[in-house]
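Feature request disguised as a bug: please show the residue count (172) next to Tat (Twin-arginine translocation) pathway signal sequence in the output. Example input:
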Amino acid sequence: MKQQAMSRRKILKLGLLSASTALAYSSFGIVIPEKSWALTVNTLTPEQGEKLLTVCRLIYPHPNLSDTFYAASVESLDGAASGNPQTRAIIVEGLESLGEWNNKSQAQRLAQLNHIAQSPFFQTVRGNMVVSFYDNPNVWPKFGYQGPSFPKGGYIHRGFDDIDWLPTTAKE
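Example output, currently without the count:
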């Protein structure tokens, strides 16, 4: 098979097309693959980070949400562990206490989490997730939450009396 040499003009066209496509995607906030992110942990090992991600998904399960939202919580927990040796010890020991997590079924994992629900590990993860997961503005639209209303004039002018979710009744 004979290969043709690319002309300078063709290279410039491809480069310009690639750059403009990338600019368009970034301008509109388009992300192509769902797995285009990487879980970044500095204090925990990558294996501990992945294990913690599955724990987070089980504590606050939302099947329609991708792992990227849970990864933000794991990264927050990793940051808390890097700033506090006691928090790091709680997280690492808690993850170790879960044992061979990957070899367990979903039901076994849930049973184990229910068993340790009062432990410092579980309470640390749960408490951090309340803030890092549910206070994440990127997850709000997935739940239908529009965000805080005060900066936008309050609820009175933004659907306070919008009760379209009630069934309509015939007026007499």
